[in-house]
Amino acid sequence: MEIKVRRVVLRHLQMELKSPFTTSFGSFQKKEFILVEAVDEDGVSGWGESVAFSSPWYNEETVKTNWHIIEDFLLPLLFQAPIAHPEELRQRFSIIRKNQMAKAAVEGAVWDLFAKKQALPLHKALGGNKHSIEVGVSIGIQKSVDDLLRIVERYVQAGYRRIKIKIKPGWDVGVVREVRRRFPDVPLMADANSAYSLADIDRLKALDEFQLMMIEQPLASDDIVDHAALQSQIKTPVCLDESICSAEDARKAIQLGSCRIINIKIGRVGGLTEAKRIHDICQKNGIPVWCGGMLEAGVGRAHNIAITTLENFTLPGDTAASSHYWEKDIIVPEVVVRNGMITVPEQPGIGYEVDRRQVDIYTSYAKVYRP
Ligand code: OSB
Ligand code: MG
């Protein structure tokens, strides 16, 4: 069975976060993003969500560059020929360099459509095999350590399976020490979003005493050489996020010894197909993976849940409950976390209904494309 995409709707949405999210790069309160709806000849809709942000602080993509790349390059390629399997798109899109988040948003819509046509939940279409997934939560930099401790307490009480805190120079060893003192047994990790260099090696070594599950992306986003040097000098496992944008990146980082864990984000690596390949490479090499987050709305969150059902996603990810981020999400039901677990939906495709009324409320503009 072939998929013939007859219409794509791009929508620009803006949603307000419940509380500002602060990393080593800065703070945001609003999230703007693109929703991709791909409709086939039978009128079935598949949904994808771009995880690019308004400004290029996390990687080089933005909402505007994604719109441009999707409109001017990816949709013409999508409309070029029918699709027998969504895995074909990786090859078809390969004539466009990088722009992984743009590619992932379009590919994600086709994966959802494909799964719906097969009457399979997306996680089954991907080869996943879990009925529920374990999740953690990522907590941004706060105004004070007391504020942070209160928030950690709230999420520990709620049952989240691990706590991740954001760190940066000046908000690191002292803060981790306080959190560890107050919560001696909680599975804890720290994410630096590239805020350090090898010159900070003593500071990073000092984190070894706190039994962190891992330290995420301490060094530059494009530097797997220095990460290898760092990993050889610290006990805490290094986890790469920003540095891994493809299966080839994963292979090289593993070969160099740059990390012991990899955070997989579907958007950062160009889609579900590439995410699966990274998962497989890591599994072969004994590297556990987990699913990162990009403050997604419901569609992106549903994709994250589906990929997390693959076997080697053995560590809790950043896929927190919808209500952690939003007053009202764009899917029904919203994503709920009970006792640190999300029940994987069994309905076809992403497994949640897109709430079109809610989507319209958040949409600032939209455009329809046809072959
Ligand atoms: O580095 O993992 C990250 C959010 C935005 C950009 C990058 C990151 C994050 C998070 C939060 O850590 C993940 C989430 O809750 O969606
Ligand atoms: Mg990260």
Give a structural overview:
This protein is α/β, with parallel strands linked by helices and 371 residues long. Helices cover 35% and strands 21% of the residues. It has helices spanning 63-80, 88-92, 100-117, 122-125, 145-158, 173-182, 201-206, 224-231, 247-256, 272-284, 298-308, 322-325, 356-362; strands spanning 5-23, 26-40, 45-49, 132-134, 137-139, 163-166, 188-191, 215-216, 238-240, 261-264, 289-291, 331-332, 341-343, 353-354, 363-369. The strands form four sheets. It has a seven-stranded parallel β-sheet with strand order 5-6-7-8-9-10-11. Strands 3-2-1-15 form a four-stranded antiparallel β-sheet, with helices on both faces. It has a two-stranded antiparallel sheet with strand order 4-13. Strand 10 (261-264), helix 10 (272-284) and strand 11 (289-291) form a beta-alpha-beta unit. Helix 1 (63-80) packs across helix 3 (100-117), helix 5 (145-158) packs across helix 6 and helix 9 runs parallel beside helix 10. The structure holds 2-succinylbenzoate (OSB) and magnesium ion. The site of magnesium ion has 7 residues, from loops.
Q: Could you provide a short overview of the structure?
A:
The protein is of the alpha/beta class and 371 residues long. The chain is 35% helix and 21% strand. It contains 13 helices and 15 strands.
